[in-house]
Amino acid sequence: MAIVFQKPKSLTDAELHYCPGCTHGIIHRLVAEAIDTLGIEGKTIGVAPVGCAVMAYNYFACDMVEAAHGRAPAVATGIKRARPENIVFSYQGDGDLASIGMAETVHSATRNENITIIFVNNAIYGMTGGQMAPTSLPGQVTQTSPYGRDVATAGYPIKVCEMLSALDAPEYIARVAVNNVKNVRNAKAVIEKAFRNQVEGKGFSLVEVISSCPTNWGMTPDKALEWVEEKMIPYYPLGVYRDKSAEKEAE
Ligand SMILES: Cc1ncc(C[n+]2csc(CCOP(=O)(O)OP(=O)(O)O)c2C)c(N)n1
Ligand code: SF4
């Protein structure tokens, strides 16, 4: 019998530690599928973050480096510059990328480093127990905003794609979601493009993936997916924010 669906080669056999219903697992799969499809499994190096994905180094079947506290884009830059023949990606949450790692994110983008960043936005600090993140929505209840995020004191959520698109340099910036089949299929194509851009030497590619955290949102997995659709996507519109090569071709 022909096998029509199986685990990507670029995932190890390790059992994922993510909570039931957490969409980190789907995103891992999409990254692994992109690596398989492009045939770059032998030369890909990943950079893992702090946060729930800290153990991504156990899950991707490629060389992995751990870069604590948001420094992943700087570490990825160093690896890529030293070994330009390798394909280098980072996998980071919103606390990691948009809070403690914001400087590294912006500066690697404005240098158009030829790296691929997978940015998992679940609007909360998952691993540490549900504190407010830079991307928590206005009014969102978290452990550190029990009355809801008050924008007068905590500021507004940071829209990473919109912000980075204001820079001249980056090659590719897109936001996707994985809350339903249609969005997962689109996310797969966008993540693959972000890796292909690097293979083709085009430069900095960041994909923000709207993800769920049922545990710290205090919801069942299916309610969490509804919350993504009803609350997160309206605040964080999906789409391609920058595709420099395509824009040049269209001129
Ligand atoms: C400088 C510093 N501050 C805080 C922490 C604690 N810490 C570890 S992971 C994390 C947040 C992770 O949240 P996020 O990046 O959104 O990833 P998630 O767990 O939601 O996937 C924090 C605050 C730390 N390790 N170092
Ligand atoms: S705490 Fe949230 S982000 Fe972390 S594994 Fe659980 S559901 Fe996923």
Explained architecture:
About 40% of the residues lie in helices and about 15% in strands. The chain has a single domain, classed as Thiamin diphosphate (ThDP)-binding fold, Pyr/PP domains (Rossmann fold), CATH 3.40.50. The protein starts with about 25 loop residues before the first helix and ends with a helix. The radius of gyration is 17 Å and the shape is globular. With about 250 residues, the protein is of the alpha/beta class. The chain has a seven-stranded mixed β-sheet with strand order 2-1-3-4-6-5-7, with helices on both faces. Helix 1 crosses helix 8 and helix 4 (about 95-100) crosses helix 5 (about 100-110). The model has no long low-confidence stretch (mean pLDDT about 95). Bound molecules: thiamine diphosphate and iron/sulfur cluster (SF4). Iron/sulfur cluster binds near residues 24, 122, 213, 214 and 215.
How do you describe this structure in short?
With 251 residues, this protein is of the alpha/beta class.
Structural class: alpha/beta
**What ligands are attached or bound here?**
thiamine diphosphate, iron/sulfur cluster
How many angstroms does the end-to-end distance come to?
49 Å
CATH superfamily: Thiamin diphosphate (ThDP)-binding fold, Pyr/PP domains
Features:
single chain; 251 residues; alpha/beta; Rossmann fold; 7-stranded mixed beta sheet; binds thiamine diphosphate; binds iron/sulfur cluster
